[in-house]
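User: Second chain of the day. Same drill as before.
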Amino acid sequence: MGDLVGNLVSFTSITAATLVGVYACFLGLIATSFFQSHAVYLHAIQMTWFKDLNSPEVFGFLHNQVTPFSINVSDGETLYAWHILPFEAYRKHESDLLDEPAGFVTDITSRLAFKLLRDDPEAILILHMHGAGGTVGSGYRTPNYRALSAGRPDKIHVLTFDYRGFGRSTGSPSEPGMFLDGLAVVEWALKVAGIPPERIIVFSQSMGTAVTCALIEHYALESPPTIFAGTIMVASFVDVPTLVATYRIAGTVPILGPFAKFPSLFRFLSRFIRDKWPSGERLGSYVRSNEAHGRKYRLTLIHAQDDYDIPWTHTPVNFWRAVNATVPGGITYKELDAEKDSIRRDLGAAGTVVEWRTANGVIREEILKYGLHDVVMGYPIVTMAVMRILDPR
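Assistant: Same format as last time:
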């Protein structure tokens, strides 16, 4: 009996030591820039390996409804992009669109779809910033494009693109680089397509929300500023260190969660995180600038409670960061939470809605009970978010 107990103790000790050793090696790996880049951005996981992005019909689009083209970035990288024509605009011009050659185009300005965007004074352009992993054609992104344009199928165009290092785009992802990517896409919309900012909506999901926060802050702080019609963010996160502290693989296994219980140790480890993406801070800066100068803005934050990739609790924090910037002297998270009790609308199985209005802006928080991380992108809530921006009441 003693030998059996001894063997069990020995086996347990060896197993524990092995697990500790593996975890230590893992921690060593995540300190490297290469590993961090692949772990945060997942750009090597395309999910469209056996499909031709230059044939969007493979993803369910009508023939020549999507125009694949490229956008040049200021540092020399090239981004792969899709311009997606709204369904009703396609129907009206179907015959002429079918006569054009299909596939990737080197000069998008020569295409009818582009001219329908540029020459329509009522056209709306949604700039789509997708999340980590995959390409413009991956997973729930294609239903998302349809949901975005569903409310105005004659007017809402979608421009989506792959960041550097994703899909057919050149380079490798990083916070400074992806910020430049976003700038290049916005400048294309403003200067090449000639769409004024009041007819541009920025939509983003997951990692794309971090890029969006950096962009809208940048343009709000410019002189003169550029303020878009509205911003919609699905499954946003506060910043990468906070995400790492709360992230669990498959919603179960924490990565650095145990270290978050020791603030000093976690702050030390956070120093090794290369790209921090401080979205919460940037949201506050964006709202504060708009409020100080009396500019109109609309901000919608959406998150599903069953999202096991990015915990839904990040969105109330980002909502607080935005609201805090509207209150002279500020408001604590706890104070706002108490205030929300009186203005929150309970929609039962659909979740809850809180809307914070000022003389200048509307900040809306929608917490769904269901929708996971990606499935929600094709839900009617996305269409409604767009329509609220276009038809404010």
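The CA atoms of residues 47 and 138 lie 6 Å apart.

User: Great, on to the next one.
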